[in-house]
Amino acid sequence: MDAPYTPIEFRLLNDWQQGLSLGPQPFAAMADVIGTDETAVLQALRHLTARGAISRVGPVFAPGRVGAGSLAALSAPPGRLEDIAARVSARTAVNHNYQREHALNLWFVVTAPDGAALAATLAEIEADTGCAVIAMPLQREYHIDLGFDLAGGHKGRSNGARASNATVSFDVRDRPLLAALQGGLALVPRPFAAIAETSAMAETEVCSRVAHLVETGVIKRFGVVVRHHELGYRANAMVVFDVPDSDVDAIGAELASEAGVTLCYRRGRCLPHWRYNLYCMVHGRSREEVTPVIARLAARAGTAPEVLFSVRRFKQCGARYFDKTK
Question: What CA–CA distance (Å, rounded) separates 111 from 96?
């Protein structure tokens, strides 16, 4: 990591990216395991948030299980890149926005309550920026972010491919709860009580419903969400392959098992502009660290990929599917 962290901060960053207690006092439970007190944990989390090391403490929603979402890209004229990036980032529906080394130089993720709202947002971005937008919706996940092991690489592997293009039928209570959760927990001793006050639910019911969302896979993990760039992982490569649709699942499962791959998924092509259907994200501390991983992926896929390194991060936050006011 780039900057020194206290032993408590390191434990919070490394050990609590998932598996956060869903009881009334989750930070006290963290403190018990670490061997400190709740006040020290909360102070450390606030400090890490202030210095940008963590995005939030809260859920990472499983792609395709909540609302609708898509990776999208556009080609911004160099002289307008910063203005266009600012226009894209200003939308709450956009949670990631990066400049990448490609003619399609601005890549962002859009989420929405449903497909119609997603399409409307993409159309609005196109009209606002004057740039054609292409969308590449997720079709299948092979390995999705399980976090970073700050002592030696990445967390565990996935358990194989599974379809992820269907939404879950929510209990009527889930939508306001998810809206309250999507920005992360308040760093207070009883964060679920704070959510209960705005969700017309008891604290115990909030805890129970969140646990149910984790158990059913709507929430993929619940914990400290770190920012990889601030922790020293500055080489961020999106590695894309054009493979036969009949082979993509088998090849995707192969690439997902490769050490160094943080994300691996199938997305829809956007012909004639974009022919690629298989994506791997590779994060490393340097390009020299990432390059051998990309070479191994190309060998296993049996074809040369297109590699798009990130140049600048304009926005990175948790996905926003729902408007809290609705």
Answer: 10
Cα 28 from Cα 37, distance rounded (Å)? 7
Statement: residue 135 has pLDDT above 90: yes
N-terminal to C-terminal alpha carbon distance within the chain = 40
Classify residue 78 by its DSSP letter.
G
Give the pLDDT confidence of 92-123 residue by residue, as tens digits: 999 999 999 999 999 999 999 889 999 999 99
Q: Which amino acid is at 215?
A: E
Query: Phi then psi for 134, rounded to 5 degrees?
Result: -110, 145
CA distance 326 to 317: 21
Q: Which of 276, 280, 241, 248 is CA-nearest to residue 262?
A: 280
What's the average model confidence in pLDDT over 140-151? 73
Question: What is residue 229's predicted lDDT score, i.e. its pLDDT?
Answer: 76
Which pLDDT belongs to residue 152?
Answer: 59
CA separation for the pair 65, 218 (Å, rounded) = 6
- Written as one letter, the residue type at 120 is A
pLDDT at position 83: 98
What pairs with residue 227 in β-bridges? none
